[in-house]
UniProtKB/TrEMBL annotation:
Pfam name, any one: Glyco_transf_28
Keyword Cell wall biogenesis/degradation attached: yes
Cross-referenced HAMAP family: MurG
Name by which UniProt lists this protein: UDP-N-acetylglucosamine--N-acetylmuramyl-(pentapeptide) pyrophosphoryl-undecaprenol N-acetylglucosamine transferase
Record-listed UDP-N-acetyl-alpha-D-glucosamine binding positions: 11-13, 125, 162, 196, 288
Gene from which this protein is expressed: murG
One of the protein's GO biological processes: cell division
Domain Glycosyl transferase family 28 C-terminal residue range list: 189-342
Top-tier EC class: transferase
GO CC annotations, alphabetized: plasma membrane
Major localization listed first in the record, in broad terms: membrane
Length: 357
């Protein structure tokens, strides 16, 4: 029996691909022992046990960004975390470690190396995090969701995706999706969403331009986010929902998507071959713009900067796209060519290669 230790967490961008790989390993070999290493503070503390996996806890030790008291105590705290993970590796008989970035990954990489256990790194974002930059230097395999991610020895393997996305039959599900949202399966649909909490910029823009979308002969499925107070005008063909727990149905209905460009979002949209307009989140280190870059270069998507996304920009750039079927079809073809649905299988193949060595 093989024992796998999957390390990562903090945000959905780390936890979701980790869980996709865990599910893939379990589906392939029910006898495999799949363990997850995470922190008490991250999203994994809730999601991992819900999925039925054992969560092993390691202390959250942030890398210091400036010389201060946290920097002074960092070496001792980090080495303690590494020692803790080394004990877990020995006690649980771990055969291979797989890291997805985040606070749990860094000590896992160091511990695996010191215990002479092979480890594999997966990076979801086009701009890698520090833990994965360091881990890639000694990893048995390094996989990235996007081509061109600057990690040593990396190869593009795609994003491990949720099964409901990988297995989605858009044509067969469209009628069910339309009924779910109270829309017409026979009319083209624009899907707008900004994540579970919403995106104020997207909500404001379409709050002022939704009539233009409907006047173009399209429907609008607008996922505003749980924190939004955008009013629902109750117009036929305009579905305003705060939260969607069946994004597979939303995607099945979408003929064009306007969204943020988180790594998982871009990967799912590409995998399904949906044309997209990305409005990268402007806060952070610019990773959302980089995540969308390959799709834009391929002709599968358009990028509009957050600060320029207004009702007027919707009317000037998106509404004409709704009327240009030839351009959207070219974008769809490019997205399908760019997208990867086999990210989970590709990461598992890397794990097998590491074990075989």
């Amino acid at each position: 029996m093989t024992t796998y230790l999957l390390a990562g967490g903090g945000t959905a961008g780390h936890v979701n691909p980790l869980l996709a790989v865990a599910d893939g390993l379990r589906a392939r070999d029910a006898a495999a022992d799949v363990l997850v290493l995470g922190t008490r503070e991250g999203l994994e503390a809730r999601l991992v046990p819900l999925r039925g996996y054992e969560l092993l806890i390691v202390a959250k030790v942030p890398f210091p960004r400036r010389p201060n008291r946290a920097a002074a105590v960092f070496p001792r705290q980090f080495l303690a975390a590494v020692a803790h993970v080394r004990r877990l590796i020995r006690e649980r008989g771990v055969d291979v470690v797989v890291g997805f970035g985040g606070y749990a990954a860094a000590p896992a990489y160091v511990a695996a190396r010191r215990e002479r256990v092979p480890f594999v790194v997966h990076e979801a974002n086009a701009k890698p995090g520090l833990a994965n930059v360091l881990g890639a230097r000694a990893a048995a395999g390094v996989g990235t969701a996007f081509a061109g991610t600057p990690l040593r020895g990396a190869r593009e393997v795609g994003m491990p995706l949720r099964r409901e996305i990988v297995e989605l039959d858009v044509a067969a599900t469209r009628a069910e999706a339309a009924a779910h949202f109270g829309l017409d399966a026979g009319r083209p649909t624009l899907l707008v969403f900004g994540g579970s909490l919403g995106a104020l910029r997207l909500n404001t823009a379409f709050g002022g331009a939704w009539r233009d979308v409907l006047d173009a002969g399209w429907q609008l499925l607008h996922v505003t986010g749980q924190n939004s107070d955008l009013p629902d005008p109750g117009a036929q063909g305009y579905a305003v929902v705060r939260y969607v727990d069946r994004m597979d149905l939303a995607f099945a209905l979408a003929d064009l998507v306007v969204s943020r460009s988180g790594a998982a979002t871009v990967s799912e949209i590409n995998a399904l071959g949906i044309p997209a307009v990305y409005v990268p989140y402007a806060v952070g280190n610019g990773e959302q713009s980089l995540n969308a870059a390959a799709a834009v270069r391929a002709g599968a998507a358009i990028l509009i900067p957050d600060g320029e996304f207004t009702p007027e920009r919707v009317r000037a750039e998106i509404v004409p796209l709704l009327a240009d079927g030839a351009r959207r079809e070219a974008m769809r073809t490019a997205a399908a060519r760019t997208g990867i649905r086999t990210g989970t299988e590709n990461v598992i193949a890397m794990i097998d290669e590491a074990l075989a060595r």
